[in-house]
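Request: Mind sharing a record?
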Amino acid sequence: MKQPTHLAESSAEDPSLGKLGKSHLPRFVGLDAIRFVSFIAICIFHITYIHYFTRDIAIAKELVIFEWMEVFTRSLAFSGFTIAFLTSLLTAYSGKGLLKRARLFLFLIIGWFLFSVLLDSGPELLVWDIYPLIFIGVFISTLAEAKKPEWSRVLGFIGFMMLWVPFWKISQWYPIPELPLDFHAVLGFADCLKYQVEWPIFPWIGLIWFGYASGQALRMELSRDGQADLTSRSQGIPIHLPELCVWILFIGLGVPFWGYFYHIKLAEFFACEAYRQPPYVWWSHMMIPVFLIRASLDPKVDTFLGRLKPLVWISHLAISRKFWVGYLFSYLLAHATSYLGTLSGLEQTPWRVAATAIFCAGYFVSIEVFTRLALSLVDKLSHKKII
């Protein structure tokens, strides 16, 4: 039988696969589409912050044709959480062991360093952000799974429970040991009005652990009984009526709290509000992308989405296959164009708006091109055994 275009081979040597040495797991195009749409929203935030020195959606104010960006990006203001969860899930789903993830870990460390340089960390050598959080979270989960698969599932449960705890309020309830203020901020305990960082460890490393455990569970479910080759049978995990009713119930319970992220302050207090929403507010928003992720795993939904050429095209993009490389290039391009605009004096001319429009039109194309070139270069160097 001819393999569907949206199937992707995922080779894994993993004890959880029983006697199987390698697995052929399907690539769910719905998951790539969810991450891609979330990526667009985040890129718009990056552009406006780097080019306009504000997290407000400045592009929509200068370019009337982009007014819809305001609604789009604010509606997906929690996209970072979606990407962090989904990326952790897909990392675990790949089934690679600790050594095979060495390149990923090295890249995350390099990305962390570049982020710190671009953000001009000053006397601080490194700035805490999503890269170190993903690195530590995935590294711990990978170690746990390598030792014993059940351990990473325990971490996943702990991570899920952490997402219900407002760690930033602990200092109000219990005395916290004296530590440097920036270290308190990285842990997630500091008063964000005094010192704030994005992606504090608590509770957000729990999101990484929960996503990783979900990806591990998905891989094991699709690989059990020695049936890892899914090219000749129904793919995915069906959603039955009782489960669907539970999803509808929980999403319905969250409806009264929708809109908190839409109206979030996007300027200097963004980190203070985005990462410190009450757990019930955060879950009321996060429940929607989690449901869409779950729905994408249903065989009928996956088959339907796999027939949609735009979604298959998204799944085949380099930024879908190597997301964190594309994510890094999105940041580098935004900084590079901002620097060139300042250096050339373009930002002080009437051509600024037109230049911004041209930049936005070619931004995502440029990210894809640079990602492909980088992957091609790495592949050539790997074949020559240089890296």
In short: The CA atoms of residues 159 and 206 lie 3 Å apart. The mean pLDDT is 81. The radius of gyration is 21 Å. The first helix runs from residue 29 to 52.
